[in-house]
């Protein structure tokens, strides 16, 4: 290839890369560690009196915790880390007072094409969150919009601060929910309210979210995380294996028919009798003492 031809090819590749950086992004290899907390977009700690609650704080305040790929990769890593840690019984996921998360990162995805989304399985890894066995409590202050609302919906329990706002505003930027909102919202709050959220883009308040069943409790903003941790501690005081079976049973209710779900629940219930923790729990009750669960 002549020097002129080579420079033309290079120029065209560089200018294309500048216009569509997501096609050319070299895979980044990063070594995250919850022990060293060397994350860029999140913070992690173990908390609670017995250090049995994993706390993950989304930490991209300048972008209102917009869920860029780097943040979602780190979140995936931290969730798996806490899920595998036998000392942790529950996980709390939070943001800051202004935003839990204002959605997927619009600036990062705005030049995506259909082909890029399809080839890169865009948003597919968001579903990994629903595979975590331990309960995840979302403690939502401020905005939970678009992917931020969907992230909260993927958690098991949502506690909200009194100034929280939940919404699916994607329609206003020429798209629609892609992280589960159009499917989970109707199952949680019914069709009419879901349609209103998704088609108008208007957010709802924490109070309205609680009334709709989207949120289980509302607290003053500054008390929210402590309350979520308290709930995490309570959950962590139970047998982890039984907690994970109970979580599976409730989640099955959203994915199956009533009859199938009832049968599934019964099998899980029978199964608890194969565990040492069921024997211990019931023995402790009859002996009027606190149980000592061993996760066996
Ligand atoms: N992506 C990227 N950046 C975002 C963002 C997002 N989703 N939301 C906010 N930001 C950035 C803003 O661009 C701004 O950055 P600069 O200072 O560099 O300009 C910074 O965060 C602060 O935001 P604002 O200045 O807009 O703050 P505000 O208080 O005036 O408004 C807001 C707050 C109403 C939440 C507004 O930021 C907003 O509407 N954000 C977008 C919400 C949205 O549309 N979310 C859906 C995204 S699409 C999606 O999530 C798809 C899916 O289903 C997965």
Automatic annotation (TrEMBL):
One GO MF term attached to the UniProt entry: enoyl-CoA hydratase activity
Annotated keywords: Fatty acid metabolism, Lipid metabolism, Lyase
Any Gene Ontology CC annotation: mitochondrion
Highest taxon of source: Eukaryota
EC number(s) per entry: 4.2.1.17
InterPro entries according to UniProt: ClpP/crotonase-like_dom_sf, Enoyl-CoA_hyd/isom_CS, Enoyl-CoA_hydra/iso, Enoyl-CoA_hydra_C
Gene Ontology biological-process entries: fatty acid beta-oxidation
Enzymatic class: lyase
CDD domains, per database record: crotonase-like
Record-stated family: Belongs to the enoyl-CoA hydratase/isomerase family.
Name this polypeptide is given: Probable enoyl-CoA hydratase, mitochondrial
Organism: Dinoponera quadriceps (South American ant)
